[in-house]
Amino acid sequence: MRGSPLIRALLAFIVIAMLGWPLWRLTSSTEAVATPVSSVPATEAKAIGLQLTFTAVPKSFVIRHLEKDLWSEPTPQAEMEREVTIPFPDKGVDLIVKIEWPEGAALAAARVRLTDPAGDTHEKSVWGQGTTEEVLTFP
């Protein structure tokens, strides 16, 4: 055996300490660096068409977008249509549909048909009993 184990351990500790100091400098932050907040480009509001068709007439319904009521009807009909103006980005929109079906009614469905600004039509369905709330994503 050559060399002292104590000297080898000391050399290993020195090498680890020399590599640890730059690593500590890279990973620790002494001052807060202000990073710019990536802002989503504002999309202009565009007119979209909404059509609702129910298998059973609900007691009421509300359609929301970005926590704002777009369309609510206290006394809805079996088929309804409306045009609303909302920001419509290229990635699409999320609409929250809340429907209150009559008590004791059988399983019912609602078809939500959206006509986007390009003229394309997209359909989604909501099934439920009692109070139903669902998020529908339209491309």
Compile the SSE list and pairings.
Layout: H1 5-27, E1 45-54, E2 60-65, E3 68-73, E4 79-87, E5 93-100, E6 108-115, E7 121-128, E8 131-138
For the largest beta-sheet, the strand count, sense and barrel status come to:
4 strands, antiparallel
Percent range of helical residues: 10-25%
- Give the helix tally: 1
Distance between the termini: 72 Å
How is the CATH topology of the domain at 45-138 named? Lipoxygenase-1
- The helix/strand order is HEEEEEEEE
Q: What's the shape?
A: elongated
CATH domain class name of the domain at 45-138: Mainly Beta
Taken as a percent bin, the fraction of beta residues is over 45%
Order of strands in the sheet with most strands:
4-1-6-7
Instruction: Report the average pLDDT across residues.
Output: 85
The CATH architecture of the domain at 45-138: Sandwich
Structure classification: alpha+beta
Nearest-angstrom radius of gyration? 30 Å
Poorly predicted ranges: none
The number of distinct β-strands equals: 8
